Amino acid sequence: KFENITVKMICQKANVSRKTFYALYHDKYEVIERIVVDNVISDLKGMLELLGKVELNQPIILEKMYQHFYDEKEFYVKAINIEGNNSLEHCLLYCFEEINLEILKDVEISLVEKEYAAYFFAASQVMLIKKWLINDLELTPREMVLSSHKWAVKAMVNNYF
């Protein structure tokens, strides 16, 4: 279990000193956050910047993200079971909500509706990912992309663009 993993263990496995670890990370939970941001969120943001809101309705934007989860299955299946404010679920929710707020920033709706809509679409995406990981990735990344695109992305596009 993740709770049993210590910073000392991480340092030994990575062959780095505790001083180096703490120069880079606050704690072991921040390592997970960094992995998610560097390998999932940055790619997602990059695709959105490249394709823009005009192409928001294209499944390709999510495809690389789902493929990354699939390729790193062992890590993410274990990480999704971490609970609390420092969990993978919480990290994804925060990051997706920020992305959704950016997507919705120019939409002429109240700030309250933007915040709720951003949270709603982020939470739905996170729950789909969580279920997929808990169910041992029983669908292919492409099937997940097409499903989440149909349920969440098209709903956002149809409601706000």
Helix share, percent = over 70%
Sequence of secondary-structure elements: HHHHHHHH
Biggest sheet character: none
Give the mean pLDDT: 89
Spatial gap, N to C terminus: 43 Å
In total, the number of strands is 0
Tally of DSSP helical segments? 8
Return residue spans where pLDDT drops below 50 for at least 5 consecutive residues. Answer: none
Content of β-strand: under 5%
Task: Give the secondary structure arrangement, pairings included.
Blueprint: H1 7-14, H2 18-24, H3 28-51, H4 60-71, H5 73-79, H6 88-104, H7 111-134, H8 141-160
Structure description:
The chain is globular. The N and C termini lie far apart (43 Å). The mean pLDDT is 89. Helix 3 (28-51) runs antiparallel to helix 4 and helix 6 packs antiparallel against helix 7 (111-134). The protein has helices at 7-14, 18-24, 28-51, 60-71, 73-79, 88-104, 111-134, 141-160. The chain has 8 helices and no strands. By secondary structure, it is mainly α.
Offer a quick outline of the entry.
The protein is mostly helical. The protein has helices at residues 7-14, 18-24, 28-51, 60-71, 73-79, 88-104, 111-134, 141-160.
Key traits:
161 residues, mainly alpha, 8 helices, globular
